[in-house]
Specification:
Number of domains: 2
Structural class: alpha+beta
Radius of gyration: 21 Å
Strand order of the largest sheet: 1-4-5-6-7-8
Order of helices and strands: HEHHHEEEEEHEEEEHHEEHHH
CATH architecture of the largest domain: Alpha-Beta Complex
Number of helices: 10
Oligomer: single chain
Length: about 375
Amino acid sequence: MSKYNVVMKTNNSTVLAEYEPIKRISNSYQSEQALEEEFIKMLEEQGYEYLEIHNLETLISNLRKQLELLNDYKFTDNEWNIFFNNNIANSNDGIVEKTRKIQEDYIQVLKRDDGTSKNIFLIDKKNINNNRLQVINQYVENNGNYDNRYDVTILVNGLPLVHVELKRRGVALKEAFNQINRYQRDSFWAGSGLYEYVQIFVISNGTSTKYYSNTTRESHIKEQSTSRNKSKKTSNSFEFTSYWADGNNKIIPDLVDFTRTFFAKHTILNILTKYCVFTSEKLLLVMRPYQIVATERIINRIEVANNYKKMGTIEAGGYIWHTTGSGKTLTSFKTAQIASNLEFIDKVLFVVDRKDLDYQTMKEYDRFEKGAANRK
């Protein structure tokens, strides 16, 4: 495919304050291939690098190159073989362990040939612009229960962290969802299991587009594989898929509009590095757009109040309104987590108006992160 210069960048907010959808000429028939080509072209226009990677060998080769670039370090062949087999593609690791490596243990220790140790970043969470985004399509996995060919995958520093499954316009969105469940069951674990690093799935039929986390919401079952015992989840639940939206909570369903917003480089990197929560119950949660908006507005108000010495005044305050069941506790948890890392914040306090809410909040916080909060 042709190379493109970046033609569009959005501001620093993860969620656009307001988005005006592109007026499409027609929502008529569009083949899956045409939809895929259009999607990849848009990603290239936004600064993604397109690669012709269709097999495991080239995927691993690119992963090595990208980690070398990120860490400004050249692996010897021996160092890479040991690091890849022990730290990245360890046969004892499944989705949970690989998710933890992206969300929590993203700095892995390399034992160098000279006996010294070096920290190797899988992803840079502090300076997200140091991470490199690439896009591949039609990757073939023939080492699973069945041969499978995946639609489009976003690589972050060479690791497949976002997978996109497309269906032609007019096909039910749930067909793309079911397709991903089949891949999880039949082949994402195959080969070196790199596709178990996927953190977010996106499904689209062009007209409607949703996203959801790669998590373990349902009970595990044991399956015998030709290579090893694998612990696999039964499937994700379609009810946990979410629409993307702008700052006014106006849904952005069309793939073109979704790509220009959700897949803006700083947006997808912020979602992966800041707005996912790996809970103490080993579930990966990805925040919804209104939760991200609320979190960023609170943090912005705190920073502005500090910079302009407004702390303790009415101007430094504010309120966020969420409906019942919309995830207020997760929003407050993530806000507290980010705020507590600000250098001028010593402690984050929560005030509740009744004991049962106190108990409920503490229980939820413990679920998000064990010991994250204590009761006074």
